[in-house]
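Please discuss these two lines.
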Amino acid sequence: MQFGKDTALRLLIVDDSVEAAEAIVSGLRNAGIAVRPSRPENEDEFQALIDSQPQDVVLAEQKAVSVPFATVMEKVNASGKDLPVMVLTSSIDEDALLKMMALGARRIVLREYMDHILHVLRSEWVDLEARRSYRRLEAQIREIERRCDTLIDSSRDPIAYIHEGMHIRANSAYLEMFGFDSFEDIEGMSLLDLVAPKKVDEFKKLLKQLSKGETPPPRYETEAVTMEGEHFPAVMEFTPATYEGENCLQVVLRKQEEVFDPKAAEELERLRQIDQVTGLLNRQTFLRALEDTVGETAAKATTHGLLLIEPDHYARLLQEIGLDAADELVAALAERLRATVGPDDVVARFGEHQFAVLTHNSDYPQTVRLAESLRAAFADAVTEARNHSLNVTLSIGGVQIGEKIANVPAILGKASQGLQSTIGVGGNRAEIHDPSATDRAELERVAAWVARIREAITSDQFVIHFQPLVPLHGAPEEMYETLLRLRGEDGGLVQPLTFLPIAEEHGLLGEIDRWVVGRAIRIIADRQRLNRRTRLMVKITQASLQDEGFVQHIGEQLKIHGVDGRLLVLQIPESKVFTNLRAAQQFQAGVAEFGVRVGLEQFGIGLNPFQLLSHFDASFIKIDRSFMKELGASAEHQQRVREFAAKAQELGKQTIAEHVQDAGSMTTLFGAGIDYAQGHFLAPAGPEMDYEFG
């Protein structure tokens, strides 16, 4: 399971101390877990939170007075919800521990050890999601079985389900073929009774083989007999299946004269499976093969390799040979791939110019060697297309399929992530994810990205995009937020979530902050020379709060470029200010001397966000984007937004709503008194500052 901002943990904390609860929340956020915490003040609030809002985990202080632990367990158990409760304690008492476990607590966590809280909470969260996934899958399976049953019943093909040689299900076409009025007439009857006597001995051998688990033949020709004694040549097609939880065989039985020419049917099926341009398998057929392979991995613990492949600088290659020659280029790439892979490897056209290779029974070194051979086959040779000799290199992202990642969406996601990462650092390389040896692959990937980020800082390879902040009340003013991108080797842009976590891990966020702030000041100066008074809002990170020279750097840049400091607005996440309050206060006081304002972003996700404002005089608050999700339809989110706006107005703070996606949200924000709105509904982010504010 991924822990990040897109998968927020809904945490219900029962603790008499707000500060102690907030410290736990901050520790979780600093560890990369997005948290949506709630803290009830009394038993009624606890009951209301369980009843009205979905929760993931309850973290309850053993000796809490506001909501005693016994009451917590009583209300959780009475709710009937799958809501794991963890006991928060400072020391372990054996008798107390046994009593809490008897009440239904799942785990005990030690308050003084944040690493222990993190480990246990992650484990419980993963278990909870696994249970939820299992329930969802059960529901989906029941729905699929219901639909399949309906489809089978309405099918014109005669279909029956056979368990241990007996009929357990048959559709109308099957009953009609043999002269039965209803399924009750055939239920429990042996399939042998519908086979002509002279074919029974041969058919018994087949049933015996199937009972031993041997693979059924795709087609079996025999002679069938109806209840009236009419004999007719028949073809049976067997498929392993399950019916009402029992393993069985699905049998499709057709009269011989109704069966299509086998060769024609085989050719038609082949045409359905291939891509007409390249002759490779198409995406749908490849996905079925991948699903079968993943199923085998889960059942037999086998290992296989998956590669996703794209030619580098594809747009540039098309420019060389002409857009109308795209199919010829793709066909030439496919031919080179086909000639390079092994005879048992499965190759497919997976997208417009993306290919996929599935190599069976391959361990990690073999998968890496295949990827490298594919890369070298292109890098060391010339590809011919439309009378052009092209130097084509490949970006390859792959996954070693094994028990630890025997899930099709996860496999494709990891392969795609590796492919995009490879493209981002210049291409002509392969990045293979091995869940059993993550450290090795991760070290190589991170090292390439660290070098790429350092180069971007020193060589000005970052790019700034702008998104307008639209005032909802009062006179319009020109104000944009700056959004960081990284220019890729192929001219495309790499999104910040791809490289910022690596930059943070390797201490590069401070350098990036300096680059962004310096570039923003120069842009403001350029706008001033055009008689445009443009205010820019810039995100800075926790690293800059610890940088003693950052305030001086801002002052120097403002002076060098002759920029009014009031046009520069800095924003810091609420959680980072809470955990670095003294440094944030000093930083704010320092930049205030230049007229620079500082505000809070991701506001509202703490336990008591407005308490922070009594210690940190933010110029504005930017409401966390999670409150914008389905704002027009969510009464809970609407109420929270109104509370934020009212409290901010009382304190004299401006409010900003980001990630606004629809007109319904705009209506709610306007009525709540929010000062600024920002989001794709109003204007997408882009490289130009061309929004008409007037």
